Amino acid sequence: GAGVSQSPSNKVTEKGKDVELRCDPISGHTALYWYRQSLGQGLEFLIYFQGNSAPDKSGLPSDRFSAERTGGSVSTLTIQRTQQEDSAVYLCASSPQGSYNEQFFGPGTRLTVL
Amino acid sequence: QKEVEQDPGPLSVPEGAIVSLNCTYSNSAFQYFMWYRQYSRKGPELLMYTYSSGNKEDGRFTAQVDKSSKYISLFIRDSQPSDSATYLCAMSPRSEKLVFGKGTKLTVNP
Q1: Can you tell me whether residue A7 is helix, strand or coil?
Q2: Successive 10-residue mean pLDDT values, chain A, 114 residues
Q3: Of A28, A99, B9, B33, which residue is the least packed, with the fewest Cβ within 10 Å?
């Protein structure tokens, strides 16, 4: 079946602009995660959605970052007033109910802030 | 001290070699341990998943967890050029929020 998909695959923006990154999880997966991977760094947890529960936003680095998940499926990560340090690969993952450690990742969106 | 430490390498081995990749961690609450493989410009792919201490084998891959030493390993036997990738360890206390190492870049030379 189809895996996790993300769009766009690449995004170049100017400092101060807002960007939206999209994630389509695997059908039927109840949990969805966003991570950030900066050059030479490991994956950094950003936010986690599970069903209808309130999302765990503990990893968001600032209030410029927000995310939503509509209808328990598609998710959008929004970064407002982008800064150069926001340049990274943003990865989305999903997992089935009861197997939250088995996370399946999308290919990522490579964000470059000029 | 970071929660998860992983030598970034790079590690270069000849085809057929046994590869040993390792991570150490400081949080004794970690119970779940994963290894992911990430090819260049791709998302990470789950390779191995282990709960608590012990060994797990899957084909040419063996994952070991030693909770007393807070040390986990991934062994790759008969390494192939197609194994060339970055290997990421990940762990969590019970579920959901994985903490990743920085990854070790492996090159297997034909």
Answers
A1: strand
A2: 91 97 94 91 89 88 94 92 96 88 92 96
A3: A28
State the count of interchain CB pairs (< 8 A) between A and B: 59
Q: How far apart are CA A96 and CA A98, in angstroms?
A: 6
DSSP A35-94: EEE-TT--EEEEEEEETTSPPB-TT--STTEEEEESTTS-EEEEE-S--GGG-EEEEEEE
Chain-centroid distance of CA B7 in Å reads 11
B95 to chain A, any CB pair closer than 8 A? The answer is yes
Query: Token pair for residue B50?
Result: 């282990």
The yes-or-no verdict on residue B1 having pLDDT over 70 is: no
Q: Which of A48, A58, A106 sits opposite B43 (nearest CB)?
A: A106
pLDDT at position B7? 87
Which DSSP letter does residue B108 get?
A: E
Q: By the 8 A CB rule, do A104 and A95 touch?
A: yes
A40/B102 CB distance under 8 A: yes
Residue B10, classified by CB atoms within 10 Å of its CB into exposed (0-12), middle (13-18) or buried (19+), is exposed
DSSP letter, residue B98: -
- Of the CA atoms within 13 Å of residue A52, those in its CB half-sphere come to 0
